Amino acid sequence: MSEARNEAQTKEEKEAIPPTQPRGRRTRWLFALVLLLSLAAVGLWASGMLATYLPDSLQPHTQRVKSHVDDSAVRHAPAIPQPPRATAVHEALPQPASADAVAELMRRIETLDQTLRELMRAQQSLRDALQTQQRMNLLLRLRWITEQDSTLPQIALAWQEIALLPGLSEEQHQQALALQQTARRDAERILKWRHTLGYWAEHLATPEQPDLIPRPEQPWLAWLARQFHLRRAAPMADQERHTLAHELRRAALALQLEQWPEQASWQRLRARLMLLAQEFGVELDLPDTFADIAQDKHKLKAAAQTWLQGVQ
């Protein structure tokens, strides 16, 4: 009984304890796997260290080893822009122009050059024509001044137009203005004296004496009577006034034509008129002589003659 009981107990212990041989084999495989992974890690670390010290010719081999490890990282990394290829640079360069294009360009350049030359010639022609016209205008007005029968108003107008002509220097412009002012001043003085002489000539006029020949009723006799006049003689005072008025009209006409009266005759006329004006309490502003006016006119004509010599 005891032996049977011992055998049964021994059998139960054997069934309770697992077999040891499979567990030892599993441990050895696990150890080998850990060792293999360690060796692989050491090899990868060593290859990375060697890649930093190896020359460039040996680096591709190391990079190939490293590419197996970083393959997944490379697939997920962003794309790096690549530099343009050499073919794109060649395509961007301008292509050489053909012979026909060069010929067409040269033809256009020659046409433009010819057109530009024609425009320059036309501009020069217009400039020459303008200068010629200005010169003719200047010559025409200078000849007006130098004419013998030119008057001071005409001379003043001519010098005013000359001062407005383009192309004059500043000195010529100022000289023309000064000469124009001199001519205008003298012309205004002469006009004032003419008005004074005309005024007194009108007031000194004597009324006509009535005709003593009767006018018949018959038409033919009336026509014959109008061919003859018979009037009474005017009083001496009226005759003197009539003569003085006539002389005043002649003096006014001479001043209008700028034909200066003789000094002696002008002095007598002026004295008679001033005596008559004193009777009416009027003061007359008449010059003693016209020498200064004549001298100014001579200077104006001489200046125009000098300009003519410079222009011609």
Structure commentary:
It is a single chain. With 312 residues, the chain is mostly helical. It has a domain at 110-207 and 235-311. It is built from 12 helices and no strands. It has helices at 2-16, 21-53, 59-69, 71-76, 86-92, 99-146, 152-163, 170-203, 219-225, 236-256, 263-279, 291-311. Residues 13-23, 53-74 and 86-90 have low confidence and may be disordered.
Summarize the SSE layout with pairings.
Blueprint: H1 2-16, H2 21-53, H3 59-69, H4 71-76, H5 86-92, H6 99-146, H7 152-163, H8 170-203, H9 219-225, H10 236-256, H11 263-279, H12 291-311
Helix pairs in contact: 2-3, 6-7, 6-12, 7-8, 8-10, 8-12, 10-11
Keywords:
312 residues; mainly alpha; 12 helices; 74% helix; rod-shaped
Instruction: Sum up the overall morphology in one term.
Output: rod-shaped
Strand content: under 5%
Give the class from helix and strand content and strand pairing.
Answer: mainly alpha
What order do the helices and strands follow? HHHHHHHHHHHH
Summary?
The protein is mostly helical and 312 residues long.
